[in-house]
Amino acid sequence: MNKGLNRYAVLVACATFCLIVAGALVTSHDAGLATSDWPLTEGKFLPKVDSLGISGVNMVGNLFWEHGHRMVATTVGFLTFCLFLYLYRGEILNWFRRLLFFLNLSDRNEPYYGEPRRWLKRLGLVALLGVIAQGLLGGLTVKLMLPLAVSAAHATLAQLFFCTTVSLAVFTSRSWLETRPTIVEQGSFPLRYLCVAAVVTIFLQLIIGATLRHSATWDKPLPTELLLTHIGGALAVTILLGSAAWFVLRRHGNDSFLARPAKIALGLLVTQLFLGLAAYLTRAASPKDPQPLNPMVGITVAHVACGALVFATTIVLTLRAFKVLRAREPVYELATSQGA
After folding, report:
1. N- or C-end of the chain: fewer Cβ atoms within 10 A?
2. Is the dihedral of CA 15, 21, 25, 26 positive or negative?
3. pTM of the model
4. Helix 148-171 to helix 118-143 angle, to the nearest 10 degrees?
Protein backbone atom coordinates (compact mmCIF):
# COMPACT_ATOMS: atom_id res chain seq x y z
CA MET A 1 0.00 0.00 0.00
CA ASN A 2 1.19 3.50 -0.90
CA LYS A 3 0.10 5.67 2.05
CA GLY A 4 1.26 8.82 0.29
CA LEU A 5 -0.96 8.15 -2.72
CA ASN A 6 -3.98 7.46 -0.54
CA ARG A 7 -3.49 10.57 1.56
CA TYR A 8 -3.08 12.71 -1.53
CA ALA A 9 -6.23 11.19 -3.10
CA VAL A 10 -8.13 12.03 0.11
CA LEU A 11 -6.79 15.59 -0.12
CA VAL A 12 -8.06 15.93 -3.70
CA ALA A 13 -11.48 14.59 -2.68
CA CYS A 14 -11.70 17.07 0.23
CA ALA A 15 -10.66 19.94 -2.04
CA THR A 16 -13.33 18.92 -4.54
CA PHE A 17 -15.95 18.98 -1.80
CA CYS A 18 -14.86 22.53 -0.95
CA LEU A 19 -15.26 23.39 -4.64
CA ILE A 20 -18.87 22.13 -4.60
CA VAL A 21 -19.56 24.32 -1.57
CA ALA A 22 -17.96 27.30 -3.33
CA GLY A 23 -20.10 26.72 -6.42
CA ALA A 24 -23.27 26.51 -4.32
CA LEU A 25 -22.35 29.81 -2.67
CA VAL A 26 -22.06 31.44 -6.10
CA THR A 27 -25.50 30.18 -7.15
CA SER A 28 -27.18 31.08 -3.86
CA HIS A 29 -25.76 34.61 -3.95
CA ASP A 30 -26.76 34.94 -7.63
CA ALA A 31 -23.14 35.86 -8.35
CA GLY A 32 -22.62 33.83 -11.54
CA LEU A 33 -22.50 36.95 -13.71
CA ALA A 34 -20.54 39.14 -11.31
CA THR A 35 -18.10 39.47 -14.21
CA SER A 36 -18.45 38.64 -17.88
CA ASP A 37 -14.71 37.96 -18.18
CA TRP A 38 -13.33 34.40 -18.26
CA PRO A 39 -10.97 32.70 -17.42
CA LEU A 40 -9.61 35.82 -15.75
CA THR A 41 -11.71 38.22 -13.71
CA GLU A 42 -11.46 41.77 -15.03
CA GLY A 43 -8.18 40.77 -16.63
CA LYS A 44 -6.67 39.64 -13.31
CA PHE A 45 -6.18 36.32 -11.51
CA LEU A 46 -5.03 37.08 -7.97
CA PRO A 47 -7.12 39.08 -5.50
CA LYS A 48 -6.07 42.65 -4.84
CA VAL A 49 -3.63 42.97 -1.92
CA ASP A 50 -2.42 46.54 -1.42
CA SER A 51 0.06 45.58 1.29
CA LEU A 52 1.84 43.25 -1.15
CA GLY A 53 1.53 45.53 -4.14
CA ILE A 54 -0.76 43.13 -6.04
CA SER A 55 -3.15 45.02 -8.32
CA GLY A 56 -5.53 42.11 -8.74
CA VAL A 57 -9.27 41.59 -8.45
CA ASN A 58 -11.08 43.88 -6.05
CA MET A 59 -12.87 41.18 -4.03
CA VAL A 60 -16.02 43.03 -3.04
CA GLY A 61 -19.66 42.00 -3.29
CA ASN A 62 -20.45 39.15 -5.65
CA LEU A 63 -16.91 39.27 -7.07
CA PHE A 64 -15.76 37.71 -3.82
CA TRP A 65 -17.92 34.61 -4.39
CA GLU A 66 -17.40 34.31 -8.13
CA HIS A 67 -13.67 34.87 -8.23
CA GLY A 68 -13.16 32.86 -5.05
CA HIS A 69 -14.94 29.97 -6.75
CA ARG A 70 -12.61 30.26 -9.75
CA MET A 71 -9.53 30.22 -7.55
CA VAL A 72 -10.73 27.12 -5.70
CA ALA A 73 -11.48 25.49 -9.07
CA THR A 74 -7.98 26.29 -10.30
CA THR A 75 -6.49 24.76 -7.17
CA VAL A 76 -8.55 21.59 -7.61
CA GLY A 77 -7.48 21.37 -11.24
CA PHE A 78 -3.82 21.64 -10.28
CA LEU A 79 -4.22 19.03 -7.53
CA THR A 80 -5.96 16.66 -9.95
CA PHE A 81 -3.19 17.07 -12.50
CA CYS A 82 -0.62 16.23 -9.81
CA LEU A 83 -2.69 13.16 -8.85
CA PHE A 84 -2.63 12.08 -12.49
CA LEU A 85 1.17 12.43 -12.52
CA TYR A 86 1.36 10.55 -9.22
CA LEU A 87 -0.53 7.61 -10.69
CA TYR A 88 1.55 7.60 -13.88
CA ARG A 89 4.87 8.30 -12.19
CA GLY A 90 6.17 4.83 -13.13
CA GLU A 91 5.61 5.41 -16.85
CA ILE A 92 7.02 8.95 -16.63
CA LEU A 93 10.19 7.84 -14.83
CA ASN A 94 10.68 4.97 -17.27
CA TRP A 95 10.36 7.36 -20.18
CA PHE A 96 13.02 9.66 -18.72
CA ARG A 97 15.34 6.70 -18.03
CA ARG A 98 15.02 5.48 -21.59
CA LEU A 99 15.69 9.01 -22.84
CA LEU A 100 18.82 9.35 -20.67
CA PHE A 101 20.00 5.90 -21.75
CA PHE A 102 19.43 6.78 -25.41
CA LEU A 103 21.44 10.02 -24.99
CA ASN A 104 24.26 8.08 -23.28
CA LEU A 105 23.76 10.12 -20.13
CA SER A 106 23.12 7.01 -18.08
CA ASP A 107 24.29 3.43 -18.26
CA ARG A 108 21.23 2.07 -16.45
CA ASN A 109 17.92 1.30 -18.11
CA GLU A 110 16.24 -0.64 -15.34
CA PRO A 111 12.46 -0.26 -15.32
CA TYR A 112 10.70 1.53 -12.49
CA TYR A 113 7.57 -0.18 -11.22
CA GLY A 114 4.84 2.27 -10.23
CA GLU A 115 1.12 1.74 -9.68
CA PRO A 116 0.38 -1.78 -11.01
CA ARG A 117 -3.39 -1.36 -11.45
CA ARG A 118 -3.92 -0.12 -14.98
CA TRP A 119 -7.62 0.50 -14.43
CA LEU A 120 -6.84 2.78 -11.48
CA LYS A 121 -4.53 4.88 -13.62
CA ARG A 122 -7.24 5.14 -16.23
CA LEU A 123 -9.62 6.34 -13.55
CA GLY A 124 -7.06 9.04 -12.74
CA LEU A 125 -7.13 10.03 -16.40
CA VAL A 126 -10.93 10.19 -16.25
CA ALA A 127 -10.64 12.51 -13.24
CA LEU A 128 -8.23 14.77 -15.12
CA LEU A 129 -10.50 14.94 -18.18
CA GLY A 130 -13.46 15.54 -15.88
CA VAL A 131 -11.92 18.55 -14.15
CA ILE A 132 -10.94 20.00 -17.54
CA ALA A 133 -14.48 19.55 -18.85
CA GLN A 134 -15.82 21.07 -15.65
CA GLY A 135 -13.68 24.15 -16.10
CA LEU A 136 -14.79 24.57 -19.71
CA LEU A 137 -18.43 24.21 -18.72
CA GLY A 138 -17.92 26.84 -16.04
CA GLY A 139 -16.52 29.24 -18.61
CA LEU A 140 -19.36 28.43 -20.99
CA THR A 141 -21.96 29.33 -18.36
CA VAL A 142 -20.41 32.79 -18.10
CA LYS A 143 -19.96 33.36 -21.83
CA LEU A 144 -23.52 32.22 -22.62
CA MET A 145 -25.04 34.21 -19.72
CA LEU A 146 -26.04 31.28 -17.48
CA PRO A 147 -28.22 29.10 -19.75
CA LEU A 148 -30.20 26.57 -17.69
CA ALA A 149 -28.97 23.45 -19.51
CA VAL A 150 -25.28 24.38 -19.26
CA SER A 151 -25.55 25.55 -15.63
CA ALA A 152 -27.31 22.32 -14.61
CA ALA A 153 -24.72 20.24 -16.48
CA HIS A 154 -21.94 22.16 -14.73
CA ALA A 155 -23.43 21.42 -11.30
CA THR A 156 -24.09 17.76 -12.16
CA LEU A 157 -20.58 17.17 -13.49
CA ALA A 158 -19.21 18.62 -10.26
CA GLN A 159 -20.97 15.85 -8.34
CA LEU A 160 -19.67 13.18 -10.73
CA PHE A 161 -16.14 14.51 -10.47
CA PHE A 162 -16.39 14.55 -6.67
CA CYS A 163 -17.44 10.90 -6.61
CA THR A 164 -14.59 10.02 -9.00
CA THR A 165 -12.08 11.49 -6.56
CA VAL A 166 -13.83 9.72 -3.67
CA SER A 167 -13.55 6.43 -5.59
CA LEU A 168 -9.84 7.03 -6.11
CA ALA A 169 -9.47 7.57 -2.37
CA VAL A 170 -11.35 4.32 -1.71
CA PHE A 171 -9.33 2.26 -4.20
CA THR A 172 -6.02 3.44 -2.71
CA SER A 173 -7.04 2.90 0.93
CA ARG A 174 -5.74 0.14 3.17
CA SER A 175 -9.24 -1.17 3.86
CA TRP A 176 -9.74 -1.77 0.14
CA LEU A 177 -6.35 -3.39 -0.49
CA GLU A 178 -6.64 -5.78 2.44
CA THR A 179 -7.66 -9.33 1.60
CA ARG A 180 -11.21 -9.92 2.80
CA PRO A 181 -13.29 -13.07 2.87
CA THR A 182 -16.09 -13.34 0.36
CA ILE A 183 -19.60 -13.21 1.81
CA VAL A 184 -22.36 -15.12 0.08
CA GLU A 185 -25.43 -12.94 -0.25
CA GLN A 186 -28.56 -13.82 1.68
CA GLY A 187 -32.05 -13.37 0.34
CA SER A 188 -33.44 -13.66 -3.15
CA PHE A 189 -32.58 -10.13 -4.34
CA PRO A 190 -28.84 -9.25 -4.45
CA LEU A 191 -27.98 -6.39 -2.13
CA ARG A 192 -25.39 -5.12 -4.59
CA TYR A 193 -28.06 -4.33 -7.16
CA LEU A 194 -30.14 -2.49 -4.58
CA CYS A 195 -27.12 -0.29 -3.84
CA VAL A 196 -26.66 0.38 -7.56
CA ALA A 197 -30.33 1.37 -7.84
CA ALA A 198 -29.85 3.78 -4.94
CA VAL A 199 -26.77 5.33 -6.60
CA VAL A 200 -28.58 5.82 -9.92
CA THR A 201 -31.63 7.34 -8.21
CA ILE A 202 -29.48 9.75 -6.19
CA PHE A 203 -27.67 10.82 -9.35
CA LEU A 204 -30.97 11.53 -11.11
CA GLN A 205 -32.14 13.44 -8.05
CA LEU A 206 -28.97 15.54 -8.15
CA ILE A 207 -29.68 16.43 -11.79
CA ILE A 208 -33.22 17.49 -10.87
CA GLY A 209 -31.95 19.47 -7.90
CA ALA A 210 -29.32 21.26 -9.99
CA THR A 211 -31.94 22.13 -12.61
CA LEU A 212 -34.28 23.40 -9.89
CA ARG A 213 -31.62 25.61 -8.29
CA HIS A 214 -30.68 27.18 -11.60
CA SER A 215 -34.24 27.54 -12.92
CA ALA A 216 -35.02 30.70 -10.95
CA THR A 217 -33.02 33.36 -9.18
CA TRP A 218 -33.60 34.15 -5.51
CA ASP A 219 -36.18 36.88 -6.31
CA LYS A 220 -38.47 34.54 -8.29
CA PRO A 221 -40.59 31.56 -7.18
CA LEU A 222 -39.44 28.04 -8.04
CA PRO A 223 -41.24 26.19 -10.88
CA THR A 224 -43.99 24.07 -9.33
CA GLU A 225 -43.64 21.08 -11.67
CA LEU A 226 -39.89 20.86 -11.12
CA LEU A 227 -40.31 21.26 -7.38
CA LEU A 228 -42.83 18.41 -7.22
CA THR A 229 -40.48 16.23 -9.30
CA HIS A 230 -37.68 16.96 -6.84
CA ILE A 231 -39.92 15.99 -3.91
CA GLY A 232 -40.83 12.74 -5.67
CA GLY A 233 -37.13 12.07 -6.25
CA ALA A 234 -36.45 12.61 -2.55
CA LEU A 235 -39.10 10.01 -1.74
CA ALA A 236 -37.53 7.51 -4.17
CA VAL A 237 -34.05 8.09 -2.73
CA THR A 238 -35.39 7.62 0.80
CA ILE A 239 -37.00 4.29 -0.09
CA LEU A 240 -34.07 2.85 -2.05
CA LEU A 241 -31.18 4.10 0.07
CA GLY A 242 -33.07 3.43 3.30
CA SER A 243 -33.82 -0.12 2.15
CA ALA A 244 -30.20 -0.75 1.08
CA ALA A 245 -28.81 0.53 4.38
CA TRP A 246 -31.41 -1.40 6.40
CA PHE A 247 -30.62 -4.69 4.64
CA VAL A 248 -26.88 -4.11 5.08
CA LEU A 249 -27.27 -3.51 8.81
CA ARG A 250 -29.64 -6.44 9.16
CA ARG A 251 -27.51 -8.94 7.26
CA HIS A 252 -23.98 -7.64 7.86
CA GLY A 253 -24.28 -5.46 10.95
CA ASN A 254 -21.18 -6.99 12.53
CA ASP A 255 -18.99 -6.25 9.51
CA SER A 256 -17.77 -2.67 9.86
CA PHE A 257 -16.53 -2.68 6.25
CA LEU A 258 -20.16 -2.62 5.11
CA ALA A 259 -22.01 -1.41 8.19
CA ARG A 260 -20.03 1.81 8.67
CA PRO A 261 -20.87 3.46 5.30
CA ALA A 262 -24.47 2.22 5.66
CA LYS A 263 -24.83 3.97 9.03
CA ILE A 264 -23.22 7.15 7.71
CA ALA A 265 -25.47 7.11 4.64
CA LEU A 266 -28.57 6.75 6.82
CA GLY A 267 -27.51 9.62 9.06
CA LEU A 268 -26.76 11.86 6.10
CA LEU A 269 -30.07 10.93 4.45
CA VAL A 270 -32.07 12.00 7.51
CA THR A 271 -30.07 15.23 7.72
CA GLN A 272 -30.61 15.86 4.01
CA LEU A 273 -34.38 15.50 4.33
CA PHE A 274 -34.53 18.09 7.12
CA LEU A 275 -32.21 20.41 5.18
CA GLY A 276 -34.40 20.02 2.09
CA LEU A 277 -37.49 21.08 4.02
CA ALA A 278 -35.65 24.02 5.58
CA ALA A 279 -34.23 25.03 2.20
CA TYR A 280 -37.71 25.04 0.67
CA LEU A 281 -39.18 27.18 3.44
CA THR A 282 -36.41 29.77 3.34
CA ARG A 283 -36.33 29.76 -0.48
CA ALA A 284 -40.10 30.24 -0.69
CA ALA A 285 -39.77 33.43 1.35
CA SER A 286 -36.73 34.78 -0.50
CA PRO A 287 -38.60 36.65 -3.32
CA LYS A 288 -39.85 39.03 -0.63
CA ASP A 289 -36.31 39.79 0.54
CA PRO A 290 -34.27 42.72 -0.87
CA GLN A 291 -31.31 40.39 -1.54
CA PRO A 292 -30.22 36.79 -0.84
CA LEU A 293 -30.13 36.63 2.95
CA ASN A 294 -27.78 34.49 5.00
CA PRO A 295 -30.38 31.98 6.32
CA MET A 296 -31.49 31.06 2.80
CA VAL A 297 -27.93 30.98 1.48
CA GLY A 298 -26.54 28.94 4.37
CA ILE A 299 -29.30 26.31 4.40
CA THR A 300 -29.31 25.94 0.61
CA VAL A 301 -25.54 25.48 0.50
CA ALA A 302 -25.72 22.95 3.34
CA HIS A 303 -28.42 21.07 1.40
CA VAL A 304 -26.19 20.90 -1.70
CA ALA A 305 -23.16 19.84 0.33
CA CYS A 306 -25.07 17.14 2.21
CA GLY A 307 -26.46 15.83 -1.08
CA ALA A 308 -22.92 15.41 -2.37
CA LEU A 309 -21.96 13.53 0.80
CA VAL A 310 -24.99 11.24 0.48
CA PHE A 311 -24.01 10.45 -3.11
CA ALA A 312 -20.37 9.82 -2.22
CA THR A 313 -21.17 7.65 0.81
CA THR A 314 -23.61 5.54 -1.22
CA ILE A 315 -20.93 5.00 -3.86
CA VAL A 316 -18.50 3.87 -1.16
CA LEU A 317 -21.14 1.44 0.15
CA THR A 318 -21.78 0.13 -3.37
CA LEU A 319 -18.09 -0.37 -4.14
CA ARG A 320 -17.55 -2.23 -0.88
CA ALA A 321 -20.62 -4.38 -1.50
CA PHE A 322 -19.27 -5.44 -4.89
CA LYS A 323 -15.89 -6.21 -3.33
CA VAL A 324 -17.04 -8.63 -0.64
CA LEU A 325 -20.52 -9.85 -1.59
CA ARG A 326 -21.10 -12.66 -4.03
CA ALA A 327 -24.32 -14.13 -5.34
CA ARG A 328 -25.40 -17.55 -4.18
CA GLU A 329 -24.64 -20.41 -6.47
CA PRO A 330 -27.83 -21.74 -8.09
CA VAL A 331 -28.91 -25.11 -6.82
CA TYR A 332 -30.05 -27.55 -9.47
CA GLU A 333 -32.13 -30.56 -8.50
CA LEU A 334 -31.80 -33.51 -10.79
CA ALA A 335 -35.01 -35.42 -11.21
CA THR A 336 -34.58 -39.16 -11.42
CA SER A 337 -36.86 -41.16 -13.55
CA GLN A 338 -38.36 -44.28 -12.08
CA GLY A 339 -39.16 -47.20 -14.32
CA ALA A 340 -39.73 -47.23 -18.03
Report:
1. C
2. positive
3. 0.90
4. 160
Q: Is 104 left (phi over 0), alpha (psi -120 to 50) or beta?
A: left
What would the pLDDT profile of 136-188 be if each residue is shown by its tens digit? 999 999 999 889 999 999 999 999 999 999 999 999 999 999 988 888 887 66
- Distance between CA atoms of residues 300 and 68, nearest Å: 18
pLDDT in tens, 22-41: 999 999 999 988 888 888 88
Residue 41 pairs in a beta bridge with 44
DSSP 17-67: HHHHHHHHHHHHTT-TTS-S--SSBTTB-SBPBGGGTB--B---THHHHHH
How is domain 182-327 classified at the CATH fold level? Four Helix Bundle (Hemerythrin (Met), subunit A) (1.20.120)
Number of residues assigned to the chain: 340
Query: Cis peptide leading into 221, omega within 30 of 0?
Result: no
CA distance 178 to 156: 33
What count of Cα atoms within 13 Å lies in the side-chain half-sphere of residue 34? 25
